[in-house]
Write a structure and sequence with these properties.
six-stranded antiparallel β-sheet; globular; mainly beta; 5 helices; Lipoxygenase-1
């Protein structure tokens, strides 16, 4: 049996599974399990994709939930090809209004066994200090023709509803205690953003299947600790078997220390100490019109091996569908910029470059081609992610005069790395 840590995955040798959610301290009548059947974009097709108290069976019985003992039964062979992932988690009923949080459970053990009771893997998670009221614990997902289990540990402060909305569902608790599930999207929703500019294909096209074994590509990351920790996007390293950090001053092997697929963030640890960490802006306030600078490694092999610098402004404080986790900016980015820092005019990080608007999709709908509509995960979200991973994010207040893009790039030269990925 393999014991997983957050972000770690393992190949499943069996397809008929029993997944047990076992908190150290139970809250009778105050908690529930949840399973979501998701497509390749981590979205639920409709409300039937939810399995839990309100719908104890899904996918014609391929996934079922027994609320009495907190157990899911999953028959992976019976899932259609439209289901790329089964996401399993738990939530405290009543959300933050009850005054409780995941910390009250102390810890939770997620165990995966086959239908004969043989233990395949486990994911023990310490919940001390966790303020969330809903949590994704485990993903079961297809890769290269095989099913894998991945430990997640991503939480949501605002409970079951927030977890549902992150995947296209509206899950609410009625006054009589019933859980109601509705589709969380409508025909009037904005068109989707394009895939992140990380693994091929190039940003702006429809994201294809996972790259086959032996594929090599790259993204960007930046140092946030002298101990050798780097931050990047989760989608950059999602399929990686071998990870390397490289710039003009260093090269080091990397391992995934903590990953958050919902907010698209990953914490990587190098096999050696690093230099000066990159600081986040102390103030969380952001204003449209602020100047920003990106430093990253786009289109590796085409634009050269050195870090590339682009400039622009913050154009909006939300993403598509009013996603408050991200901001929009105009500095051009390409494939390979994913995971790089978005600096303000004082060289402080205000975001992590994540993706760009799908220009081809917009052109098909409107006949217009959008330009420089790019997105970054907000610095506040990244700081919360680091705190959840047990790290204190480095912060600083703006000091001195505003810096030129050249000055910011020079200071970032040794802190920003190319993240090389081999699947």
């Amino acid at each position: 049996m393999q014991t997983l840590s957050p972000g770690q995955n393992t190949v499943l040798e069996r397809t008929r599974l029993v997944v047990q959610l076992d908190p150290q301290v139970g809250i009778p009548g105050g908690m529930t399990g949840v399973a979501l059947l998701l497509d390749g974009a981590d979205k639920a097709a409709d409300r039937s994709a939810y399995v839990g108290d309100a719908n104890p069976q899904g996918a014609a019985g391929a996934v079922s939930f027994d609320a009495g003992n907190g157990t899911f039964r999953v028959d992976l062979d019976r899932l259609g090809q439209e289901v790329a992932k089964v996401r399993l988690g738990m939530a405290l009923l009543g959300g933050p209004s009850t005054g409780r949080s995941m910390a009250d459970l102390r810890s939770v053990a997620t165990a995966v066994s086959d239908d004969q009771g043989a233990r395949l893997c486990a994911f023990p998670l310490d919940l001390a200090g966790r303020s969330e009221t809903a949590m994704i614990l485990l993903d079961l997902y297809r890769r290269h023709g095989a099913w894998r289990a991945k430990a997640v540990g991503q939480g949501f402060v605002h409970g079951l509803n927030a977890l549902g909305r992150a995947h296209g569902l509206d899950i609410v608790e009625a006054q009589d205690g019933r859980i109601l599930v509705r589709d969380g999207h409508s025909p009037d929703d904005p068109p989707p953003a394009g895939p992140p500019p990380g693994p091929p294909p190039a940003a702006g096209g429809e994201r294809g299947p996972p790259p086959p074994p032996g594929t090599r590509y790259s993204g960007t990351g930046f140092c946030i600790s002298r101990d050798g920790f780097f931050l990047t996007n989760e989608h950059v390293i999602r399929d990686g078997r071998r990870l390397i950090a490289r710039n003009n001053r260093m090269e080091a092997g990397l391992r995934v220390a903590f990953a958050d697929p919902v907010n698209d963030l990953a914490l990587l640890q190098a096999d050696r100490a690093a230099g000066e960490p990159t600081a986040f802006r102390e103030s969380l306030r952001l204003d449209p019109g602020e100047d920003v600078v990106t430093v990253g490694y786009p289109l590796s092999g085409l634009l050269g091996s050195n870090a590339q610098v682009t400039t622009g402004t913050i154009s909006a404080l939300t993403g598509t569908a009013n996603d408050s986790r991200v901001l929009q900016f105009t500095a051009p980015v390409q494939t390979g910029n994913s995971g790089g820092p978005l600096f303000d005019a004082y060289g402080l990080v205000v975001g992590i470059v994540s993706h760009k608007l799908n220009a081809e999709h917009i052109h098909r709908i409107t006949g217009d081609i959008p330009q420089n509509v790019n997105f970054a995960v907000k610095g506040a979200v990244a700081r919360a992610f680091l705190l959840a991973a047990g790290m204190e994010p480095p912060t600083a207040a703006p000091a001195g005069a505003r810096q030129s893009a050249a000055e910011i790039a020079s200071a970032a030269r040794d802190r920003v790395v190319q993240v090389l990925v081999e699947t």
